[in-house]
Amino acid sequence: MKMFLISDNNDTKTGLRLAGIEGVVAHKREEVMSALTNALNDRDIGIILLTEKLMDLVYEEVMNIKLRRDYPLIVEIPDRHGTMRDTDKITKYIREAIGLKI
């Protein structure tokens, strides 16, 4: 099983390439969707890594893929600048799911 990266910058791609993970750099929504489709069609890829900025471009499509397919796993990762998300993301999910502030 291989991992595959779809990144918005070369630095992230280079860093993960040093760890043995192949990938592509994309900037436009169409480029991301094309790379995602190619990765989904490759049965050797078990995990697709997608940077946060690109996830924002194709969020609905990725959520539909996650709901309809068991394989591969799609994981959102921060780029070299760090995360753009809330620091308390898990607590936010729990609060939304059960309606209680913890």
Automatic annotation (TrEMBL):
Q: Which SUPFAM superfamilies match?
A: AtpF-like
Query: Does this entry carry the keyword Transport?
Result: yes
Q: Which domain of life is it from?
A: Bacteria
The keyword Hydrolase is annotated on this UniProt entry:
yes
Q: Which of UniProt's keywords are assigned here?
A: Hydrolase, Ion transport, Transport
Which Pfam families does the record cross-reference, listed alphabetically?
Answer: ATP-synt_F
Q: Name one GO molecular function term.
A: proton-transporting ATPase activity, rotational mechanism
Looking up InterPro entries in the UniProt record yields: ATPase_V1-cplx_f_g_su, ATPase_V1_fsu_sf
Q: What is its EC number?
A: 3.6.3.14
Looking up Gene3D superfamilies in the UniProt record yields: ATPase, V1 complex, subunit F
Into which family does the record put it? Answer: Belongs to the V-ATPase F subunit family.
Know the name of this protein?
V-type ATP synthase subunit F
Q: Which organism is it from?
A: Thermoclostridium stercorarium (strain ATCC 35414 / DSM 8532 / NCIMB 11754)
Taxonomic lineage: Bacteria, Bacillati, Bacillota, Clostridia, Eubacteriales
